Amino acid sequence: TTEVTGVLVALPGIDADGGTMRIRGGTFDQVSFMVDGARARNPLDQTPYMNINLSSIQEMEVITGSFNAEYGEAQSGVINIITKDGGDRYRLFIDQRYTPPGKRHWGPALYDYSTDFYWENTHTRHLQWWIDNPDQWVDPNGVYGNNPASIWTPEQAYQHYMETHKPLTDYTNTPGFQTEASISGPVPMIEDAAFFLSAKYRSQAPVFGNSFRKRGIFFNGTGKLTYNFTPSIRLQFSAFYGSEETSWGIFEEPDQFYFTTFGYTARYAYFDFAGLPDSRTDGQTLRFSNVLSPSTMYELRLSRVHAFRRLGTLPGDPVGWLASGVTERDNVRAVDDQGRPIPYASGNPVGYNTLGYYFRNDDNNTDWSLNGYYSTQINKNWQLKAGLEFTYYHLDHFNESKIPAIDSRTYNPYQGAAYFQNKLEFGGFIMNVGVRYDYYNPNDTLYVNQFDPFSDPKNSTAIFSQVSPRLGIAHPIDERTVLHFSYGHFFQRGPFGDYGEGFSDDNAQGSLTTFVDHNTGQPVILGNRAMRPQKTVAFEVGIERNFADIAVLDITGYYKDITNTIRVVQVSDPNTGIAYKTNGNGNYADVRGLEISLRKLPSHYFSGYVNFTTQLGVVGRSGDPIVVYPDRNVFGPSGDFILHENPRLKAGLFFQIPQNSGLFGGVLDDLLISLEYRANFPNDKIRQDVFRYSDSTYTANESRPVRQNTNMKLSKGFSLFDNTVRLTAFVEVSNLLNDKWINFAAVESASLPDQKKFIQSKFRDLPQIDSNGIPLMETAKFLNLPRSFLFGVTLEL
Fold it and tell me: Which of 12, 138, 399, 511 could form a disulfide with 407 if both were Cys (CB 3.0 to 4.6 A apart)?
């Protein structure tokens, strides 16, 4: 894999659908993602930064169940990464990967003029069509070509068409590559000091042809400097940095919204709704540790994490941010034999302003954290650990919407924690028991009069706090079987703010948002400064069995009860015209699931794993109001709503011949063949998993096929220069079997006869056009991407 996420999604309970990762039903903003003790994220909305270079990772701890009291500000899990230290000798590692140019989506290339799939190839790309059909095109003033008042000749109209219908990105001839390198060793001329540096540069070709940027550029780096004052006193400075230059069209997952809505007709137009993003994240940690004795130590850490996020207009856009409904369209107005406009050949958008920009933002968000702990092994049975944490935020936030509204403020909330935990060991029996105290203050203005919030009186925000007990037990049943149990309470504040246009509920869940109308000065969205942090009570129970040191089977059931979840509330006063969204804690949820995992330990050249997860969720809505008026409240639906999930199967099989095996004279030494398989099973309780068709004579409901994906890697290592240099060549194949995941949403836009043929053929006869006669792009019909190859080589010395 090239990313940390590729490691994570192999684990039970961790999944990624549509680019969104989840741990046991919780999104990744509910996960504490830590790098050398620093919480790596955007402090504004808690989106984690996960692009840590694999070559720099010494250790990664992944906890998907309950976790010890030392970890906080998380509801669904902890991912704790420790980066490598430098050693007493110099080491170099280089990993080079190359993706050949080519089409990476289904169907013909976007600008393939050799196929008759596109109407323009047989009509408007030929001058004779313009000469023969002057009644089917217009000049710049909208005058038809057969009108004497037209200022264009057919030749001029044709020339303008060809100039505005050129490929926007030569995406099929753009290769991708990635270089990752690391170097480590002692610091020259400084005794007892060592360093480790890594950097990764990735250039990715667009998956689709009208990406504004011709390629995506990604850079990630880490560094660590260690100095040992004495064998027991150590000072470390570590840092990470990541930047992305990307745009719509550069993605790993197909954008089905675009493909089904604009894909065919907007091939020559930039998708400006998404804007042009710019993202940088960096973090630094200073760590001092002192081992007082073989059983006692303490540690102090000061860390800073900064996230820069900007979403702006496309450079070169002649109208830019102020454009509203201004769309440049081509001059074709073609009709069919009955005189009806051909929907895909009548004024298609070109260039900029296909949709217009909905919002823009510009953020510099920083948190400063001071942490410390004291740990002592009191005796061979009892270890004690206690710690303190404090975090101060500086959120320089700007978000503007076309509503029109703007949130331009600096926020300075703070939070802290204290914890105390014990580890008790008696033979094979292990118990972790602890307690954590969390507190949080928005450190802002509390608006008292919700129907005139910016008027007096105003108060200061209060402190929220929670005491969270934690318990974990591992109890041996026999020498090969262990029963494990964990229970805990978990505390996490809601996001401070969000990005967006303000219409959706997701944009209204920031507790500090102050989204104000340009014209009236009244709020459009006003975060609830009195919103309580979310609380989760989770437990799991499982059994683990070792079979003759060959394989380990684990069966775990889990349950999470989540309260104080965020809901959106509308505040309205018809007398004054005030109407805005705020939020509260009226909802709740729970998640229950089962994980079965079998791991084969390395032996006889083979190792592998297989795991299966099934899960069910519930979203509960209380009887709290959804609209608040001065004289009455409006209540929405209440009760429990089941969230069905897809059962998932993951498996990996690895065949590896070690170095110096001598097998077949050593020809196959250091050979690796790996296969990884993923299966997402349909659930007939999920609307998107069932295709429904009904007419006066025929009714059918069919579940989608299993979504399967198989990846393969083949590598061969070589020893050079008396084993001082290791060279490894490899090839990776994604979607090895070229499986296709049908997109029911696209098929449902087809005509009823085509939908009937589709379901009667057991999903083999896919429609070619939608109900308006517009051709359905092959990419729109499928939710995944076809088979692709990556070639690489690594060098270690």
Answer: 399
- Residue-wise pLDDT for 236-259, tens only, equals 999 999 999 999 888 777 787 888
Cα–Cα distance for residue pair 36/371, rounded to 1 Å = 12
Angle at 213 between CA 198 and CA 406, to 5 degrees: 95
Check: CB of residue 187 under 8 Å from CB of residue 224.
Answer: no
Burial 261-298 (b: 16+ CB within 10 A, else e): ebbbbbbbbbbbebbbbbbbbbbbbebeeebeeeeebb
8 A C-beta contact, residue 328 and residue 349: yes
Strand partners for 358: none
In angstroms, rounded to a whole number, what is the distance separating the alpha carbons of residues 700 and 761?
12
Between the two ends of the chain, the Cα-to-Cα distance in Å is 21
Listed residue (97, 269, 107) closest to 172, CA to CA: 107
The contacts of residue 2 (CB under 8 Å, 6+ apart) are 54, 97, 178, 202
**Residue 647 in tokens:** 């059962």
**Strand stretches in 106-215, DSSP E:** 176-186, 193-204
Mean per-residue pLDDT over the chain, rounded:
92
Pairing of strands 31-35, 382-401: unpaired
User: Residue 699, Cβ neighbours under 10 Å: how many?
Assistant: 10
Residues 580 and 571: beta-carbon distance below 8 Å: yes
Query: Average pLDDT of 534-550?
Result: 94
Q: What are phi and psi of 350, to 5 degrees?
A: -140, 155
Q: How confident is the model over 301-326, as pLDDT tens digits? A: 999 999 999 999 999 888 888 766 66
Q: How many CB atoms lie within 10 A of CB 642?
A: 10
Q: Look up residue 489 and give its amino acid.
A: H
Q: Where are the beta strands (DSSP E) in 131-275?
A: 176-186, 193-204, 216-230, 233-245
Per-residue pLDDT, averaged over 434-459, amounts to 95
Q: Per residue in 83-115, pLDDT tens? A: 999 999 999 999 999 999 999 999 899 899 888
E-assigned strands of 231-275? 233-245
Instruction: Identify residue 222 by its one-letter amino acid code.
Output: T
| Element housing 779 (H / E) | helix 778-781
Burial class (CB in 10 A: 0-12, 13-18, 19+), 121: middle
Please name every residue paired with 286 in a beta bridge, in sequence order, or none if there are none: 237, 302
Q: Is residue 779 a contact partner of residue 263, using CB atoms and an 8 Å limit? A: yes
| Phi, psi (deg, nearest 5) at residue 780 | -70, -25
Greater pLDDT, 668 or 789 = 789
Task: Read off the pLDDT of each residue in 288-312 and give the average, rounded to a whole number.
Answer: 97
